[in-house]
Amino acid sequence: MTAAAAATGVNQLLLTASVAELGTLRFTPAGLPAIDLKLEHESTLQEAGKPRQVKTALKAVAFGAIAERLARQSMGSLWRFQGFLATPGNGKHPVLHIQDFQQD
Fold first, then answer.
1. Measured CA distances, 102 to 26, 78, 89 (Å)
2. DSSP string spanning the chain?
3. In the prediction, which pLDDT does 3 show?
4. Tell me: domain 12-103, CATH 3.30.428.10, correct?
5. pLDDT tens digits for 59-75?
6. Would you tell me which of 38, 69, 70, 99 could form a disulfide with 20, CB atoms 3.0–4.6 Å apart?
């Protein structure tokens, strides 16, 4: 993939989920607020013309003002999260980097 192709690629995720685990607000070495969380989603969707029960859990992280807002939310609260997926350098699974969230 060329650098130009990589720059124009789409990596966006919109997910309605509840907060299953909420870490403690921490600060990066650069002093940026950060928080780790686990999100859980459950719904019924259509696949190949048939209903399918879907459940998933996903690790997520937020930085800056978004992290500070998330730190004040309660466990089990339902939100619509928007962000992008990235795999940490030392990890095997993608993590949702939350860029915004709002009440669902």
1. 22, 9, 29
2. --HHHHHH----EEEEEEEEEE---EE-TTS-EEEEEEEEEEEEEEETTEEEEEEEEEEEEEEHHHHHHHHTSPTT-EEEEEEEEE--TT-SS-EEEEEEEEE-
3. 59
4. no
5. 999 999 999 999 999 99
6. 38
Question: What is the residue whose two structure tokens read 């907060």?
Answer: 19
Give CA–CA dist 58/4, Å, rounded.
30
Q: Which residues of 52-75 are buried (b: 16+ CB within 10 A; e: fewer)?
A: eeeeeebebbbbeebbeebbeeee
Q: Which tokens in the block code for residue 22?
A: 């909420």
Tokens 């989920």 belong to residue: 17
